[in-house]
């Protein structure tokens, strides 16, 4: 095996710049997915069956089709859907955000249902209305339990973001591919990209562990 | 004053309460006893609408709480409840457990709520634990905090649902003592309990439920020394 990393050193800054692109897409999609996921999870536990039905249908569609297909649908479909072509990175944020919301809503729903029913009864008995009881009592406890699953979802999102390559967003993956094309040698730059993704995921993991420790203070 | 009129509660096909009528005067302490499955907890939970009655009426201070137009949240603010398993908020400190509802529901300022909270903690003998999390407390301490939490809303009535049943025997007394003190302050109390000694000593009246029916309603001396019904005699024989 003859690996020659030497020739890629000049291209390294170019590849590393992709980290910013990747992080931007992932963080924005993560926020979108989280907020929408909370809303959908409330729909799922709602007394109004209709809302639950909508949220279940949503989850079913986004979980039942490939992410890369959703990405391409949103990117290439935008001219027909809204009349103009959206930016590739916007399409990426939208599709990843909408997709993760489907998964996150399931995680949060399960987390809320796992909180002891006595907690909401105690809040009710004190005269606390549903919404603040949910926000201040139930959700914080649910979050603590679902944090590992949520971190998992964000890690998946970070790695899966590499598929934006197919619509031409110059993230880490795409840049590695471009550099490989210039030098007619793909192996090394893609290995470099792999290392970058791995380090990003490790940082996320450490971050998650830290948050978990903080949240377990009350144990 | 609480007035219960022909209260029925069904869970699906199961009829748990079969027409209960009674009343509790202001300042009265009523012990509700009976075998398990007799409906005593359900009866208690109907009084703050944690269970919605299937039929019948419950009036608290002249207000029909079973009426659709009644604001349930307002009712609950005046009816404190203490649970068998405490249900303290585990992610909040002891003091935050006490201040949360008064601040959120009554709009008290943080300093006012904390002042009242600390006073209540002193009354239940737990001032030193104000900034601990509930998981650091013993069962008896948790239940005393739960009582203080309910009192922080300044309720007119306090409901106790088997408050000592989940406690180790050596912790029962500290909780009963707190309840005894509370009874002496003139609080209206309804207590579902298996502590016969406590019922006898503290209660003004004993309600004996069996099979969803109010079988006896009498002063404790009378109930414990000379129960009228066969079922109460049976029950007491097993308990004592």
TrEMBL record, chain A:
Keywords: Amino-acid transport, Cell membrane, Membrane, Transmembrane, Transmembrane helix, Transport. One of its GO terms (molecular function) is transmembrane transporter activity. It comes from Sporosarcina globispora. It comes from the Bacteria. The keyword Transmembrane helix applies. PANTHER family: GLUTAMINE TRANSPORT SYSTEM PERMEASE PROTEIN GLNP, MEMBRANE COMPONENT OF AMINO ACID ABC TRANSPORTER. Residues 19-208 form the ABC transmembrane type-1 domain. The keyword Transcription does not apply. It is found in: Cell membrane. GO terms for biological process: amino acid transport. Belongs to the binding-protein-dependent transport system permease family. HisMQ subfamily. One of its GO terms (cellular component) is ATP-binding cassette (ABC) transporter complex. It is a multi-pass membrane protein. This is Arginine ABC transporter permease. Its main location: membrane.
UniProtKB/TrEMBL annotation, chain B:
One of its GO terms (molecular function) is ATP hydrolysis activity. Gene3D superfamilies: P-loop containing nucleotide triphosphate hydrolases. Residues 2-236 form the ABC transporter domain. SMART domains: AAA. It comes from the Bacteria. InterPro entries: AAA+_ATPase, ABC_ATPase_HisP-typ, ABC_transporter-like_ATP-bd, ABC_transporter-like_CS, MetN_ABC_transporter-like, P-loop_NTPase. CDD domains: ABC_HisP_GlnQ. Keywords: ATP-binding, Nucleotide-binding, Transport. This is Peptide ABC transporter ATP-binding protein. The lineage of its organism: Bacteria, Bacillati, Bacillota, Bacilli, Bacillales.
